[in-house]
């Protein structure tokens, strides 16, 4: 599986554009060096205060990571850490490690493990691996640097900032697709999202949440144009929960998804 196969269209187009831009190679190397320094500090902090997953430490979680990385054809399997936190969360530095001696890092919190089933945890790990597979930190940073000179210009500045914002959201859609490829069950991925969004481990109805996403889309379509515009202008680091579920369900039904599954598993 290549990242280009599951990237959201906007994520794919902008990644291709910036990867082929003049001097992108020089900028890419500089970003990699900078992120490498950050990664050193993060790894030391995690080793000192978190639990590193291994064949001898939480072996079931270790195998889950290995399987997810294998499905996505990761060249190097990242290190996985469990961090004590009351907030259910997962994150990665999103720079794919090519060196087996310095693999990339994925972190899941204790609250996430307690709240989600094993399959849901693996889907969430798949989402984080999607960021690594797509090198999102690298390309989004490159796009941010390229758009910086435009931000002080009237009109162009706001358009550049809006495009970068839309790219960040599209990157999350790409990684939701990676999660789906790992689990191959849209209800598992939607269920994991629902538990994170609702902030509870109580029994929830995944299909009802999918129906809620359809209700939102219809209401948004029929809403006053000023209301729609105000929603689009809201600055977010992640797409709206119901939008993510709706996007994921649409991709699950797409020929693009079916072709990848057929190529990979049949």
Question: Can you describe this structure?
Answer:
Helix 6 packs across helix 9. The protein has 266 residues and is mainly alpha-helical. 67% of the residues lie in helices and 6% in strands. Strands 1-2-4-3 form a four-stranded mixed sheet, sandwiched between helices. It has 13 helices and four strands. The chain is globular and about 55 Å long.
Number of helices: 13
- Rg to the nearest angstrom? 19 Å
Q: For the largest sheet, list the strands in their spatial order.
A: 1-2-4-3
Total beta strands: 4
The backbone outline, from C-alpha atoms, is: globular
Report the helical percentage: 55-70%
Mean pLDDT: 81
Low confidence ranges: 145-157
What is the element string, with H for helices and E for strands? Answer: HHHEHEEEHHHHHHHHH
DSSP strand (E) fraction? 5-15%
> Class by helix and strand content?
mainly alpha
Question: Notable features of this structure?
Answer:
6% strand, globular, four-stranded mixed sheet, 266 residues, 13 helices
In short:
The protein has 266 residues and is mainly α.
Task: Please specify the SSE layout and strand pairing.
Layout: H1 3-6, H2 9-19, H3 24-49, E1 51-52, H4 59-71, E2 79-83, E3 90-92, E4 105-109, H5 110-115, H6 118-133, H7 136-147, H8 156-183, H9 186-198, H10 206-222, H11 225-233, H12 241-252, H13 255-265
Parallel strand pairs: 2-4
Antiparallel strand pairs: 1-2, 3-4
Helix pairs in contact: 2-7, 2-8, 3-7, 4-6, 6-8, 6-9, 7-8, 8-12, 9-10, 9-12, 10-12
């Amino acid at each position: 599986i290549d990242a280009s196969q599951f990237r959201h269209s906007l994520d794919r187009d902008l990644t291709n554009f910036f990867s082929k831009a003049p001097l992108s190679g020089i900028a890419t190397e500089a970003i990699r060096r900078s992120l490498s320094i950050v990664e050193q500090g993060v790894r030391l902090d995690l080793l000192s205060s978190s639990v590193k997953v291994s064949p001898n430490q939480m072996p079931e979680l270790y195998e889950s990571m290995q399987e997810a990385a294998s499905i996505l054809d990761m060249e190097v399997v990242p290190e996985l850490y469990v961090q004590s936190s009351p907030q259910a969360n997962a994150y990665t530095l999103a720079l794919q490690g090519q060196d087996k001696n310095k693999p990339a890092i994925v972190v899941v919190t204790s609250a996430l493990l307690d709240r989600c089933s094993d399959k849901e945890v693996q889907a969430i790990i798949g989402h984080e691996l999607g960021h690594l597979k797509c090198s999102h930190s690298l390309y989004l940073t490159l796009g941010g640097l390229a758009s910086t000179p435009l931000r002080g210009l009237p009109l162009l500045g706001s358009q550049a900032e809006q495009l970068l914002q839309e790219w960040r959201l599209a990157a999350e859609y790409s990684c939701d697709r990676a999660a789906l490829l790992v689990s191959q069950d849209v209800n598992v991925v939607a269920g994991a999202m629902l538990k994170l969004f609702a902030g509870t481990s109580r029994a929830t109805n995944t299909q009802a949440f999918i129906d809620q996403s359809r209700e939102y889309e219809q209401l948004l379509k029929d809403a006053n144009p000023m209301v729609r515009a105000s929603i689009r202008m809201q600055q977010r680091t992640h797409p709206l929960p119901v939008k993510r579920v709706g996007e994921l369900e649409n991709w699950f039904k797409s020929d693009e998804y079916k072709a990848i599954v057929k190529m990979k598993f049949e």
